[in-house]
Amino acid sequence: MSNVALVVGASGITGSNLAEKLIAEGWVTYGLARNPNTDIAGLHPVQADLLDVNSLEKALSGVSATHVFITTWMRKDTEVENIKFNSLMVRNLLTVLSQKQSVKHVALVTGLKHYLGPFDAYAKSGTLPEIPVREEHPRLEIENFYYAQEDEVYAAAARDGFTWSIHRPHTVIGRAVGNMMNMGTTLAVYASICKETGRPFRWPGSAAQWNGLSDVTDARILAEQLLWAATTKAAANQAFNITNGDVFRWSWLWKELAAWFDVVPAGFDGDIHPLEAEMARDHVLWKEMAEKHGLIESDLARLASAWHTDLDLGRPIEVMTDMSKSRKLGFTAYKSTRDSFYELFETLRSERLIP
Length: 355
Hints:
This protein is 41% helix and 14% strand. By secondary structure, it is an alpha/beta fold. The strands form four sheets. A seven-stranded parallel β-sheet has the order 3-2-1-4-5-6-11, sandwiched between helices.
C-alpha cells in the first residue's frame, strides 16, 4: 500500500508545513480540520469535528490512512477541561480509524509543557524541570492534557498494533493565520506596530529569558522529524524533542529582529511588560494599518497570540532542549533560528500579512 497521510490540524502552523512536506515527498495527503486548509496544492481537505464521532465517520469513510499525524488541540478554561476534550478528540479519531485497520503509524505533536507543566501551572515553582529538558524526564505530578493525549495513543496502539511517535517542539516558528500559539507572527505584528507608531520594540518578558539560553523549533524542521520518525524503524514507539539545533540568548536575537524591521530595540529594564497588555488597544490601529498598507488580514486577533508569547517569554528560568536522542538515531536536520524568523517575516510581507 502506498503512503496515505492524514494530517489532523492541517490549517495550523505545524499541520500546514507538514502537509506541504508530505505532498512534496509524493504522499497522498488528507488534511482534517473544522475549517480545512484549501490553499495547499495537492492537499485533500477533510472537514470534520473531532468531538463528533458521526462527523468523523462520515468524513473519513473514503480515507484509508496509513500514517496519522495529530497536530491540533483545543484550549479550554481549566486543565480538567483541557484533559477531557483533548483526550476525547484523540480517542474519537483513533476509534473511527480503527475500523479500517489501515493505520501503520500515529505521530502526536505536544510540546515543552510536557516538562514545564500545563497553562494552569506553567513554569511555576515546584514544577520546574532540570534544564536542558530530556525525553527521559518523568512526568510531573500534576494533571496535564499532553499526558492524557499520549495515553490515548498508547492505548490505541496496543489495541490496533500500529507504531507511534511523540514529538515535543519548543516554540514553533512558522506561517499560519488564526493560530493560538504563534510567536513568530505575533512579534512581526508587534514590530510592525512599533514601526508605524514610533514606539520602541520593548522586550516583554523576564530577566531569566532575556539573559538565559533558549531555542525554538522551525515548523519545517518539525515536519522533517515527523516524516523521519514515521519512516524510520529505529524511531518507532519513542518520544523525541525537536528544535532547530542551535541556541541563542534573547538579548542577542531581540536586536536582530529589531534590525529587520528597522525599529529601536529596548531590552529588559527590570520589569515584565506583557504583550497582551501592550497590544490590547491596538486592534483599531491594526485595521487602519491594514487599510493603509493594503494588508489582507485586518483582524489583529487572527495574527497575534500575545497571551502565548507572554507565557514563553515570561518564564522564570532559561529553557533549552536536549536533542541527543534523535541525533544518535540519525536525524540531523538543522536550521538557523535567525533565518527561521527572517524567512517568516519575508513570507508575511510577501503575502501582505504585515506591511
